[in-house]
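Possible regression after last week's pipeline update?

I re-ran a chain I had predicted before the update to compare outputs. Posting the input and the new output here so someone can diff against the archived version. Not blocking, just want to make sure nothing changed silently.
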Amino acid sequence: MSTCDFKAEVVSCYTENDVDIIGIGNDPIEPDKYIIISRLDEGDSPDESIGLQSARLGEEEISSCIQAITVSKTDILVAIKPEKVRKVGDEAFHADLSGVTFNYRQLVRYLKKITAGSSIQLQITK
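New output (post-update):
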């Protein structure tokens, strides 16, 4: 397996119908590399409420698959749980954020909201 590595052109954080969503992609209109992390508190546990979509998965969302997220102002790394790697198709997703303008504080705030109470290891660096 491999890491999906891309240079982000868009970072978006928003809430839609009580679902917190973070989208990061290599194109604002038709990305061919992207990740979408969302949380809808309907599952039995916080982990089950957190979903991941990627270009490889298409419209499919996989829950309880994120092991860790490391974020800084210049990049983000989303590591996948070993038992979910085959289903997700990648061991990790790495986005270079250095060339895109975005609200870092907002991204951190959304990451904290989405991962709150879950087993996801969130590491925030400055």
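Follow-up from reviewer: compared with the archived run. Residues 3-124 form one domain. Marking as no regression found.
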